[in-house]
């Protein structure tokens, strides 16, 4: 049987949708629908036509279009996003329609009114990891437009996109002038961050950064980190600015996260310890204190035992020695809830509606502001894939460094929020009791992540400075 000829061609694909559209519709169905129609009619459709694009599909809040030129696709997107800032200026934050846009160049199947293929799928996945009001492009697009458009691009690393077989090199378009928001925040604080890369033993590329001019302080990597977006979002920003004002802060994105490679094979405690050594070597650190948060505490403990000559102090915040699958204190009901969370993450992590991510956010920072909750949902979406998120939970759940605690010889400070909803304070008490000579400090609050408004955050920062002789 002769296979029917299929028309194929190379094209630039633009995919767009509204961030948090389900929430907006739930709050004001008619108003949201009217806003979307107005934006489409007055702005988006006209800009696409201006740049000789063709609208393929407009299902729901989504839009798929194609352009003969990658340059025109990017120019169109930039005009749309910049115009949306103006159109949203007088709209209350909670009611704004903010678009995410992804652009890819790829070979597609032309079926008349529709286009199909991997190139379309990649564009849709790029859109799903773009920030609100932002644009993400593939390496193929960057190659086509570089030198032709006066824009700056921020590297987001090689990322495993949902249902895409190969890792994709992703770049974010900088829309607000020559400097990114992160750069402006750092400049205002008289700080400058340098991002560099090193190779782990298995070839995974790790992104690390230095900021500040004081004595060195190495912060362990943790789940859902991003060396640039951490400065932009109102979650870790205050905490990082305070540390960088006193120390030369070195931090890195864990494998599978942020600017580090997303396409990783090994994901174990030993691998994370080896990655920390790789970063410390590349950053030129010889003997230094380590600040570890949450699951990073177990990594820091294992590193300090393997390299006692390099670690001067340990600061462990919100940590635990044994994960959910190893701790004798975890109830069967808690384990069942944990497994249910993993299933929800597999199904809904990449969805436009952040319901699944909010389940995790609620336990991490129950007293966060609406702005911080939205930001953390965004941070989760742009810093890790669903696959990596689930693998992280599995790996951390199998941590067990209880037998290492009595062997730690470096000065250690252990801190924990009294009513932490994510990790019970008993876990840090176990760390402090097991490490000889460790000092234990209880902080007021409920949030697992130390937020700017938390009553315990100033105490937390002051304790770090005192412990390291920088009060």
Task: Give me the count of strands.
Answer: 16
| Residue-averaged pLDDT | 90
Percent of residues in helices: 25-40%
Number of contiguous helices: 16
**Name given to the CATH architecture of the largest domain:** 3-Layer(aba) Sandwich
**Shape by Cα distribution:** elongated
* CATH class group of the largest domain: Alpha Beta
Distance between the termini: 81 Å
CATH superfamily of the largest domain: Alpha/Beta hydrolase fold, catalytic domain
Low-pLDDT parts are: none
Q: Report the radius of gyration as a whole number of Å.
A: 23 Å
* Total domain count: 2
How many strands, what sense, and barrel or not for the largest sheet? 8 strands, mixed
Percentage of β-strand residues: 15-25%
Judged by helices, strands and strand pairing, the structural class is: alpha/beta
CATH topology of the largest domain, anyone?
A: Rossmann fold
Task: Map the helices and strands.
Blueprint (H helix, E strand, L loop, with lengths): L7 E11 L2 H7 L1 H22 L2 E5 L5 E5 L2 H19 L10 E12 L4 E2 L1 H12 L5 E4 H7 L6 E8 L8 E7 L6 H8 L4 E7 L5 E7 L4 E4 L9 H4 L4 H8 L3 E5 L16 H14 L5 E6 L2 H11 L4 E7 L14 H17 L6 H10 L5 H14 L2 H12 L14 E6 L7 H10 L4 E5 L13 H11 L4
Parallel strand pairs: 4-6, 11-12, 11-13, 13-14, 14-15, 15-16
Antiparallel strand pairs: 1-3, 1-4, 2-3, 4-5, 6-8, 7-8, 9-10, 10-12
Helix pairs in contact: 1-2, 2-3, 9-10, 11-12, 11-14, 12-13
């Amino acid at each position: 049987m002769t296979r029917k000829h299929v028309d194929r061609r190379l094209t630039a694909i633009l995919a767009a949708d509204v961030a948090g559209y389900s929430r907006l519709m739930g709050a004001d169905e008619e108003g949201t629908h009217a806003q979307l129609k107005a934006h489409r009619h007055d702005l988006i459709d006209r800009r696409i036509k201006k740049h000789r694009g063709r609208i393929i599909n407009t299902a729901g809040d989504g839009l798929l279009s194609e352009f003969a030129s990658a340059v025109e696709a990017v120019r169109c997107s930039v005009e749309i996003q910049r115009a949306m800032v103006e159109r949203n200026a007088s709209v209350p934050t909670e009611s704004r329609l903010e678009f995410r846009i992804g652009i890819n160049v790829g070979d597609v199947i032309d079926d008349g009114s529709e286009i199909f293929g991997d190139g379309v799928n990649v564009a849709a996945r790029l859109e799903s990891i773009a920030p609100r009001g932002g644009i993400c492009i593939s390496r193929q697009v960057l190659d086509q437009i570089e030198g032709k458009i006066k824009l700056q691009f921020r590297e987001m690393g090689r990322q495993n996109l949902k249902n895409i077989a190969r890792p994709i090199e992703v770049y974010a378009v900088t829309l607000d002038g020559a400097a990114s928001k992160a750069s402006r925040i750092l400049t205002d604080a008289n700080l400058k961050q340098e991002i560099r890369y090193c190779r782990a033993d298995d070839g995974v590329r790790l992104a690390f950064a230095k900021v500040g001019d004081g004595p060195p302080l190495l912060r362990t990597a943790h789940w859902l980190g991003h060396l640039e977006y951490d400065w932009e979002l109102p979650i870790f920003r205050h905490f990082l600015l305070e540390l960088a004002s006193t120390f030369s802060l070195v931090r890195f994105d864990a494998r599978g996260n942020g600017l580090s490679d997303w396409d990783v094979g090994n994901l174990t405690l030993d691998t994370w310890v080896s990655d920390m050594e790789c970063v410390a070597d590349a950053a030129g650190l010889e003997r230094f204190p380590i600040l570890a948060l949450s699951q990073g505490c177990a990594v820091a403990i294992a590193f300090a035992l393997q390299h006692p000559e390099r670690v001067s102090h340990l600061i462990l915040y919100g940590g635990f020695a044994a994960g959910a699958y190893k701790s004798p204190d975890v109830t069967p009901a808690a384990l069942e809830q944990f497994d249910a969370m993993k299933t929800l993450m597999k199904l809904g992590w990449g969805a436009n509606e952040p319901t699944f991510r909010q389940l995790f956010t609620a336990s991490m920072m129950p007293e966060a502001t609406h702005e911080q909750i939205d930001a953390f949902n965004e941070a989760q979406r742009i810093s890790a894939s669903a696959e990596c998120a689930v693998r992280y939970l599995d790996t951390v759940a199998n941590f067990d460094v209880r037998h290492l605690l009595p062997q730690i010889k470096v000065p250690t400070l252990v801190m924990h929020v009294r009513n932490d909803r994510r990790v019970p304070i008993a876990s840090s008490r176990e760390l402090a009791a097991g490490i000889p000579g460790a000092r234990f400090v209880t902080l007021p609050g409920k949030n697992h992540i130390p937020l700017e408004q938390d009553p315990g955050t100033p105490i937390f920062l002051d304790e770090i400075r005192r412990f390291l002789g920088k009060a």
